[in-house]
Amino acid sequence: MRKKIFTHKEISKKISILKKNKKKIVLCHGVFDLVHYGHILHLNSAKKFGDYLIVSVTSDKFVNKGPGKPLFSQFQRIQYLSNLEMIDGVILSNTASAIDVLKLIKPNIYVKGPDYVKTKDDKTKKIVLEKKLVKTFGGEIKYTEDQAYSSSSIINSTGLIYNKEQRKFLDKIKTKFGKDYILNKIYDLKKLNLLIIGELIFDDYNFGNIIGKSGKEPHLVFEKKF
Q1: Which of 75, 84, 102, 197 has the highest CB neighbour number within 10 Å of its CB?
Q2: What CA–CA distances, in Å, run from 200 to 186, 189, 192, 203?
Q3: What is the rounded distance in angstroms from the CA atom of residue 76 to the CA atom of residue 94?
Q4: Alpha carbons 61 and 80: distance in angstroms, whole number
Q5: Which residues make beta-bridge pairs with 221?
Q6: Are residues 17 and 52 in contact, defined by beta-carbon separation less than 8 angstroms?
Q7: Is 25:54 a contact under the CB 8 Å cutoff?
Q8: Euclidean distance between the first and the last CA atom of the chain, given in angstroms as a whole number
Q9: Which residues pair with 132 in a beta bridge?
Q10: pLDDT digit string (tens) for 164-222?
Q11: 3 state DSSP class of 51
Q12: How far, in Å, CA of 111 to CA of 17, rounded?
């Protein structure tokens, strides 16, 4: 099986050879925590834009999509992607955005999904910075037109993160209070002048089953449940 997982140093050497041979390099970037049908469509479309498709994967410490995420470690995500036929190279991104990877790869084509066509919809504004950077080295941004799916929505709906009771509670909140209502309540808190006296105490509860009494010390021994 040909090598697909590269360090940044290795991919730089590979790109140098590819560009000397007039190959068009394509880059996709993302978390890819749960690779689904939408990703397959997107990556197949991206490969058609050039000769060599590189996928950069956000490292675990920069995945900020809620509790229990990423569901799969960076090692697992990279290994999975490296086994997809349309992908030629996979690297790890050690920053919160694609900026450093774009500077490293300098792709001919940087590919994003259809949900990024309207830059104003990207609340992080990262796409604006990425577009400016791509233009500085003569690259181009292209958008796929395939149906988009959400990994987060799929994970949340399966019970892998939230149990049945938690999902029921969240659904009830969403039904009773809309997003705008909740945001307005948060903004109202900003108007308050708060005086806090004392110190905060965070209680950490651990539950377990009693195994017995310690033979060395006068205390009970517990087996942790959760």
Answers
A1: 102
A2: 21, 19, 19, 10
A3: 16
A4: 19
A5: 212
A6: no
A7: yes
A8: 42
A9: none
A10: 787 788 778 877 887 788 888 888 888 888 787 887 787 877 777 777 776 666 777 77
A11: coil
A12: 22
